[in-house]
Structure formats: structure tokens, C-alpha cells
Amino acid sequence: MRKVIATMFSNPSWKLSQNLSYPNTLGALNYNGAKVGVLAVLRGRGRDFPLSEAGLEYLLKMEQEGRIAADAQVSLFTRPAKKVSYRNLLPLKKLQSCVTI
Predict the structure, then answer these.
(1) DSSP assignment letter at 101
(2) Burial letters for 23-55: b for 16+ Cβ neighbours within 10 Å, e otherwise?
(3) Cα separation of 101 and 64, whole Å?
(4) Residue 80 pLDDT
(5) CA distance 80 to 37
(6) Which helix (H) or strand (E) holds 95?
(7) Residue 99 falls inside a structural domain
């Protein structure tokens, strides 16, 4: 799954939106018969990765309603040399146990 998520900004099959998640990007992709859901968190200035509460809540809602597969991810990306680069992913369920929404 990591290889698939790493293509989020380079594969035109991904549907991307920032309407409900700015400064993050919500992504959805039909992959092997399942709809994959990802909240992409791009590194801001310095070392911070700003996480949108609204984006996280929307990803949770999509998962709970069955609109995406039950293994939604929050993924970290950086922008070295103006190119978006995949860093890491966090399963939504694991992140939920660390934060209060």
C-alpha cells in the first residue's frame, strides 16, 4: 500500500481535494476493488507537519460510512526541490488512539 500512496501526487487516477481539509489534501483511489482514502499532510515551514482537524474528521466520517476502505491512512509528504515526496504513513485507527477529536 505504501507504494500506491506514494503516487498520490503523480498518478492522475487519484481524486484530490483540499475543500474540506486545507492545508492538507484528501485523496481517494480505486485500487484492487477497494476505495483507498488518504489524508496527505505536507511539511510546512521548518519541521512541522500541520494536521487539519476538519480533514481528519472528514476522513473518519468517510471510513465510518463505508465510502472508503476501513484502513484509511494519514500520510506525511515533503517538498524537496519543489517535488512532492512521500515520507511515512499512519493508519487512521492508530492516530485516533493518540489524539482527541
Answers:
(1) -
(2) ebbbbbbeeeeeebbbbbbbbeeeeebebbeeb
(3) 14
(4) 61
(5) 24
(6) helix 92-96
(7) no
Higher-pLDDT residue of 78, 10: 10
- In 3D space, the residue among 51, 53, 29, 54 whose CA is nearest the CA of residue 40 turns out to be 51
Domain holding 65, by residue range, is: 2-94
Q: Residue 93: which H helix or E strand, with range?
A: helix 92-96
Residue 66: give its domain's CATH number: 3.40.1350
Decide if 100 is inside a domain: no
Helix (H) or strand (E) segment spanning residue 38: strand 34-42
- pLDDT per residue as tens digits for the range 8-66: 989 999 999 999 899 999 999 999 988 999 999 888 777 888 888 899 889 889 988 99
Per-residue pLDDT at 95 exceeds 60: no
Q: Is the pTM of the predicted complex or chain greater than 0.85?
A: no
